[in-house]
Amino acid sequence: MQFTKGHGTGNDFVILPDPDNQLDLTPGQVAALCDRRRGLGGDGVLRVVRAAKHPEGEAMAGEAEWFMDYWNADGSFAEMCGNGARVFVRYLVEGGLAIPAGQAPLPVATRAGVVRAVVDGDTVAVEMRRPRVYDASVATLGGLTLTGAAVDVGNPHLVCALPAGLDLGSLDLTRAPEFDPAVFPAGVNVEFTATGDPVDDVDGHVLMRVYERGSAETLSCGTGACAVAAVALRDAGRDTGVVAVDVPGGRLTVTLTDDSCWLAGPAVLVATGDTLPPTP
């Protein structure tokens, strides 16, 4: 089994080329590949399949050649992964599977629909649906209960701002936060945020940690950064703008327009090789 390892601000993935959808990949194999002690290690698996060859991608084959078959580290499926999409595009371009036409966006099919990406040197920016802030809910972490905003970015998020005096680094994210299953029946990614110092050329600066559904705490979450930016702009009384989101793995820049959301940051390929098909 061929693989490539890549990451976007520390959010890391095992990339499996499977253009004709011939790998009989199972949830147990995905979990084994993502195991950081017994496997290759990763927050998830990106399987590279031609859209026309995948049952969930064939309806989008007229818009995008490639389908991002994304799996969480525990072997479950996810609708969308912003950093994963950026790393996926880096792999397509560096592997010669796609050639960007200048700055024309490169389309990629996902379970959340077709997204578009632009490669500019070390940075890959992906255009996704505009986040929808739609409800309020709570998350409980240890003895701490926080009110947050429910956000749809193609996948579910709960953005919880920390009260003054509580340090973001003090949170224990070794356990999953509790949430309301009536609001999030399919589970949820929970983001914890604090306001950052002012940064030039942006409209807001937010610090973020995240517990991802199916992957535990990760160093970065692209769709989570988009959700956080949408809440930050809403709280500032704005519908559009640019927000710098600092995660443990680095900085992402989120730009909200009237009808879309651009997520930008570094996307890096670090290794390639062969591995035996894992035994769960």
Automatic annotation (TrEMBL):
Active site: C81, C221
EC code: 5.1.1.7
Membrane-traversing stretches: none
Marked site: Could be important to modulate the pK values of the two catalytic cysteine residues: H157, E212
GO MF: diaminopimelate epimerase activity
Catalytic reaction(s) noted: (2S,6S)-2,6-diaminopimelate = meso-2,6-diaminopimelate
Keywords linked to the UniProt accession: Amino-acid biosynthesis, Cytoplasm, Isomerase, Lysine biosynthesis
Broad class of the protein's primary localization: cytoplasm
Enzyme class: isomerase
Pathway: Amino-acid biosynthesis; L-lysine biosynthesis via DAP pathway; DL-2,6-diaminopimelate from LL-2,6-diaminopimelate: step 1/1
Keyword Transmembrane helix applies: no
Subcellular localization: Cytoplasm
Superkingdom as given in the UniProt entry: Bacteria
Binding site for substrate: N11, N72, G82, N83, N155, N189, E212, R213, G222, T223
Any GO BP annotation: lysine biosynthetic process via diaminopimelate
GO cellular component, one term: cytosol
Quaternary state and interactors: Homodimer.
Family stated for the protein in its record: Belongs to the diaminopimelate epimerase family.
Function: Catalyzes the stereoinversion of LL-2,6-diaminopimelate (L,L-DAP) to meso-diaminopimelate (meso-DAP), a precursor of L-lysine and an essential component of the bacterial peptidoglycan.
Name of the protein described by the UniProt record: Diaminopimelate epimerase
Source organism phylogeny: Bacteria, Bacillati, Actinomycetota, Actinomycetes, Micromonosporales
